[in-house]
Amino acid sequence: ERFGDGRRTEIIDDVGDMDIEDLIAEENMVVSVTHSGYIKRTPTHLYRSQRRGGKGVMGMEKKDEDFVESLFVATTHNYILFFTDKGRCHWLKVYELPQGGRATRGRPIVNMLQLEPDEKIRAMVPVRNFDSSHFVIMVTRQGQVVRNSLDLYSNPRKAGINAIKIQDTDELIGARLTNGEQEVFIGTRRGMAIRFKESDLRPMGRHVQGVRGITIKKDDAVIGLEILRPNSTLLTVCANGFGKRTQTDDYRLIKRGGQGVINIRATDRNGDVVSVMEVIDDDELIMITQNGVAIRCPVETIRTIGRNTQGVRLINLGEKDRVTSVARMGEKDAEHLAEEIGLNGNDVNDETEES
Questions:
Q1: DSSP code string of 227-243
Q2: What is the torsion angle, in degrees rounded to the nearest 10, for the CA atoms of residue 213, residue 217, residue 221 and residue 225?
Q3: Burial class (CB in 10 A: 0-12, 13-18, 19+), 305
Q4: In sequence order, which residues have a C-beta less than 8 Å from that of residue 297 and are 6 or more positions away?
Q5: How high is the mean pLDDT in each 10-residue block of the chain (355 residues)?
Q6: Alpha carbon distance 342, 351 (integer Å)
Q7: What is the model's pLDDT at position 257?
Q8: Can you give the pLDDT at residue 51?
Q9: How far is Cα 67 from Cα 78, in angstroms, rounded to an integer?
Q10: Which residues pair with 197 in a beta bridge?
Q11: What pLDDT was estimated at residue 347?
Q12: Residue 263: helix, strand or coil by DSSP?
């Protein structure tokens, strides 16, 4: 008598196949990864609030001397591919990542994947669709390169799959996602580099050794892989604190497999190259030394000079100290991302699709 409207639900005997993903709403998330390997997801609307508060992602609680190194937008139903030094690929759905606000650190990635005891993550690739028009390019320390169609990774397994065949004396250095029409840059420890078209690499199967990307000498090794964008420069940093920026056009296009050209003179003054990466003027870097010193440096303060040079001093090192790693900071990405998301009051899903 009080509630006389008709039943709105239907009770049936068979619910059919059901996946936990069917119960999770698809919404945009900002995925952030710190230098020490902590990962989390944050709803995009919180980044709009952070922007107004002026704190950005810097409000995130992190370990001492940790910082956000990678940051990108993905929906809760998207995949993230993790490539390890053993040449294996692991999957996580974005909704499987811990969700948190600006005061949370996240969880260590290694605790969320079934890795071997001595296995290390070398690259992360966010994936929206496993289509055949995109490719994954991987390079090993000894210069072997593999180009796989992205649709080869569409069947995930909990324990991961073999992405590239790695020799016992070799290891995977990096993996990047491409659109099939880009340019590849590979840099080595002794200051050599090669730039070639992605089309020089034919698509292969997953568990293959690949082809020669760059020919290296016995005392040399690959230390970096980049997929080049327009209007960018290449930053090279050496162990003794010297480095430089160079326009990508200064590296002539050649066929893959050659010895490449001189990227920087790895003299006694400079030491070995520890990092090569593509940067733009708005980027900021963190240079970390053997003694635990971390220095923040805007890219625009590093002068752009020629290719075959010794570079300039980027950091003053203490006695017996050396640069061990260089990372591009994700906080700048967060600022640009907040501006993109906060352009107007429309649906966030529409605004972040292109970003």
A1: E--TT-EEEEEETTSEE
A2: -30
A3: middle
A4: 284, 285, 286, 287, 314, 315
A5: 82 72 83 87 68 39 66 86 94 91 82 89 90 94 95 86 92 94 95 95 89 93 92 91 92 93 91 93 87 86 88 88 86 55 38 36
A6: 9
A7: 93
A8: 37
A9: 24
A10: 183
A11: 38
A12: coil
Cα–Cα distance, 104 to 234 (Å, whole number): 33
Please give the Cα distance from 243 to 224 (Å, whole number).
Answer: 15
CA atoms within 13 A on the CB side of 123: 26
Q: Residue 40: which of 66, 20, 64 has the closest Cα?
A: 66
From the CB of residue 10, how many other CB atoms can be counted at a distance below 10 Å?
A: 5
List Cα–Cα distances, 120 to 109, 151, 318, in angstroms.
10, 24, 30
274 dihedral zone (left: phi>0; alpha: psi -120 to 50; beta): alpha
Contact 248, 197 (CB under 8 A): no
DSSP letters along 154-183, please? Answer: -S--TT-EE-S---TT--EEEEEEE-SS-E
> 173 and 122 in contact (C-beta within 8 Å)?
yes
Closest by CA position to 68, among listed 336, 338, 334:
334
Query: Of 162, 145, 123, which is closest to residue 198 (Cα–Cα)?
Result: 145
Question: CA torsion angle for 329, 335, 336, 340 (degrees, to 10)?
Answer: 150
| Closest among 101, 184, 197, 90 to 138, alpha carbons compared | 184
- The Cα 30–Cα 230 span in angstroms is 25
Please identify which residue in the block is written with the tokens 């974005």. Answer: 94
User: Residue 350: is it exposed, middle or buried by C-beta count within 10 angstroms (0-12/13-18/19+)?
Assistant: exposed
d(CA 335, CA 354): 16
pLDDT digits (tens, 9 = 90+) for 31-52: 888 888 899 998 877 765 433 3
